[in-house]
Sequence to fold (153 residues):
Amino acid sequence: MILVSINILLERYNTNAFAAGLEKTLRLLQSLCMIVAAYLLPSSPSDAAPFQTGMKSLALGRRYLRFFKLFPLLDTFWAVSERGSGKGRNQVVHLLEMGKVGFGALYLIGQNVTMLDAMGIWKVEWAGMVMMEANRFWFYSLACAFMLTLHCL
Fold:
């Protein structure tokens, strides 16, 4: 009886929705820490230090949640690429979908590659450069998503 109720609970439990809600909550807490740290920094840097540490820790926690988002995104990329821009399919829409998903995957790859550096376990000199490129891919992904939305309107 207990196993049946646990299985029903697990069927109803949506881990994706939970992770998205948790990530948004961590983003809110990180923003609050950033605001408090920015307010306290000019007058008392020692009082702002715990909030700056909290901000960095929450950012790392959000990064942990994004770690496994790469695999579903790669599945989406392959599905979009297999659909292709065949007969009757708009090539601009296909190109923008490929850009959105492909650049998003490159962003997550850049983040995942530099995870050990962000944790302080294995520091490498190229991590900053890789993260800068990853953030550039994130921007490209957002730009493609925005243009796709405008095109579909």
Summary: The helical segments are 2-12, 15-40, 45-66, 70-83, 91-113, 115-119, 127-152. The mean pLDDT is 87. The longest helix spans residues 15-40.
